[in-house]
Structure prediction request, 178 residues.
Amino acid sequence: MTDATTTLSTRFAAPDDAERIHRIVEAAYRAKGEGAGWTTESGILDGQRTDLREISELIANPDGGLLTLREDDRIVATCQLERRSDHAYFGMFAVDPAAQAHGLGKYLLSEAGRVGREEWGLSQMRLTVIAARTDLIAWYERRGFRPTGATSPFPYGDERFGIPRVEGLHFVEFSMDL
Prediction:
């Protein structure tokens, strides 16, 4: 992960975290060139991944929020974690590209599962991912997620979620026992 002097902690985001979270999400999903991490979707989507309004709404969600991973109190990763009727929903997962490949994503995913299991009493976590993201799907499968068979359409025409560069985008759902 990081060196022995680094302190990692997780907590749900507060409203004043919104701008930092927005920068991380945009960098993780839309960065191009040298600054892009392996999680970028810039090959299939242009435009924004999210906006401050959506980030603020997710932070204020009474059924969850944006779980943050902090390295010495600086946010380095985030994910949407929402308590639903029979599962925890995991989404908008982003690790600052400058901090990727150090185990931080695995750590945050594990902590999200712990919250779902121990704090919310749930036995399953679900997520959706763009089917074309085979590298990301493989990463989730190595961590125990399995396809449910459910799919949903990409919101073509709604630029709040990006401008597709390719046709045929859709989401596939995965679940993992907690």
The chain has one domain: 8-177. Residues 8-177 form a domain with the Aminopeptidase fold (CATH 3.40.630.30).
